[in-house]
Amino acid sequence: MFNGQKVSFSGIQPSGNLTIGNYLGALKNFSSYSEQYKCFYCVVDSHAITVRQVPAELRRRTYETLALYMAAGLDPEKNTLYVQSHVHEHAELAWILNCFTMFGELSRMTQFKDKSAKHADNINAGLFTYPVLMASDILLYQTDVVPVGVDQKQHVELCRDIAERVNQIYPDMFTIPEPIISTTGRKIMSLADPMKKMSKSDENTNAVVYILDDKDTIIRKFKRAVTDSDMEIRYAEGKDGINNLINIYACFTGKSNEEIEREFAGKGYGDFKMAVGEVCADALAPVQARFNEILDDKTALEVQMKKGAEEASYVARRTLSKLQKKLGFVQVR
Ligand code: ATP
Ligand code: LTN
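A: This is the predicted complex of the input protein with L-tryptophanamide.
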């Protein structure tokens, strides 16, 4: 709770250009909490360095991700938008929570297993303790809800376990957060391999539709999307490619699967792919226009970053010092 309001918190890594998976699974849903919740949305640059980043690109994407938050409808006057590394309490709490997290718990995290397989030459301790930093992000703000894609559910569940463990020793320390996972946008799949999550760090750029892709590129990518040898536009087991396209169409239009199947009855995959491309490009066009305007004024963006970090620090400091006191750390301020 924050001043009598429930709290929503989420974060996106500036580890690549944001995809429609990030948009439909997370970003698009962030603004639906703005009226009733106190919202903190963070660009998690400290998480991004668990995988090697090119510094100039990390810097550029940090600005871009914040600009996309605003372009997707998050008003910085109503929501606290900031960069994780600007609020040092995240790293401080992460250390403390490391001491309340078990090695075995972290070993079971599927993202760790996937990422260590993908980056076998750099299985660093940060990659392993990544979920503890994420738990710190969430718990610092006494968060009630965490809007995320389904791939992050396991991490939010670990965060709940850590919070409950701390609360057992130090009662009433943390609010226990709930993951909020949208139904249709929960897991957008790769256009090249519909068994795999669409991911911003995928090397195959044709497998991924970026929020900032232009209309021609979006349509070309959907036209090439892997489907099946069947001819029917129908949501069914084994039709992963078509299921994914139906999901994407549903997210952008708000239509149900049945409505979509009826709309495209008797039509071919080519027509359907074209329609998915059109609704996607049309929905993203206003976001892209706002993004360009916002990014044009870097100084204004920096002012927002600073204001967001100050607001976030104020709350984060309160939670951290409450826990430090409970732990027995001497406070001399
Ligand atoms: P990376 O490839 O660097 O791991 P990512 O594309 O998986 O990145 P994150 O920054 O890890 O993106 O995720 C930000 C948010 O977007 C999270 O809430 C995550 O669950 C959501 N998300 C990411 N990819 C998808 C997807 N394909 N479908 C639905 N939600 C997604
Ligand atoms: N781990 C998330 C990004 C992330 C996050 C968070 C999401 C970092 N901190 C706090 C929700 C709440 C990811 O990899 N997508």
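The first helix runs from residue 20 to 30. DSSP finds 13 helices and five strands in the chain.
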